[in-house]
Amino acid sequence: MMVTVSYWGQQEFTQAKSGGRASELNQYEEIKQGERGAWVSIAAYLVLSALKLWIGYWFVSGALVADGFNNLTDIVASAAVLIGLRISQKPPDKDHPYGHFRAETIASLIASFIMASVGLQVLITAGQSLFEGHRETPNIIAAWVALFSALCMLAVYWYNSRLAKRINNMALMAAAKDNLSDALVSIGAAVGIVASQFGMPWLDPVAAFAVGLIICKTAWDIFYSSTHALTDGFDEKELHSLRSTIARTKGVQSIKDIKARIHGSNVLVDVIVQVDPELTLIESHQICDEIERRMGRKHNILSVHVHVEPMDDGSGNYDHIPSK
Predict the structure, then answer these.
(1) What is the mean pLDDT of residues 199-224?
(2) What whole-number distance in Å separates Cα of residue 67 and Cα of residue 199?
(3) In 153-167, which positions are buried (b, 16+ CB within 10 angstroms) versus exposed (e)?
(4) Higher pLDDT, 25 or 108
(5) Three-state SS string across 234-282, please?
(6) Looking at the domain assignment, is residue 320 inside a domain?
């Protein structure tokens, strides 16, 4: 973590803390753990897509076949997440002084596009099915396969969502939401297959249409959060919370400006604080240290850039300040 103190004659004091380096190393280890979730998704999609396509073609279930092809596209989304996690582990270099953590966010954005395409495909297919005249009744075994697949994907969703929350990883959370949408698609397919056994084939496209809407809504949520982060957007309530924490730091008399942005799963904060003009450079730096500790302890923020200015009377004139 870098802390810079600018005081009076633009003197700068920069210190790289060993605790910050240790936290950074721990973060790379957490991203490495996130790869397990992506691999679990890829393995599940490979097995289930093969099973659904085989059973779907064998027992004449169009819903199950469509679900199988849906899982094939999800392999691409999970692979994108995996690649994003791999890239984000690269250390900072000359071209990327802040590291490569935003690769996670880009991976989430790619996953949202793939989810949206799947959702639109489900909606179009469901709409066409509503106007079809004759529909074949699939074997009930296809419904059991769909339910089994749904249970598997719910388990994968549970694993990935818990892991994503623990390591605070946006890309893996996007993959988890994709897992959940796939479980819903399989449930919709099972409902349609069972309904056709009881003379209600129209329920199949209706259920599929509802599932398509859910997938598109999930894709939009991921797309919005990803683009918001990539354009340096930040939640106003969270920014107010950060400001309150800094304002309560001993020695801080005023906060002139504060900005924050998302960098992968990290939050980067830039703040200008005003302090007693009679403080020494070392005393001002100690205030910066305390701000850093409070932000890390309360908000788990590892990167805080603090600019210190002397408190003035509003005129911008410091001539009244006695020299030390």
Answers:
(1) 80
(2) 22
(3) bbebbebbbebbeeb
(4) 108
(5) CCHHHHHHHHHHHHCCCCCCEEEEEEEEEECCEEEEEEEEEECCCCCHH
(6) no
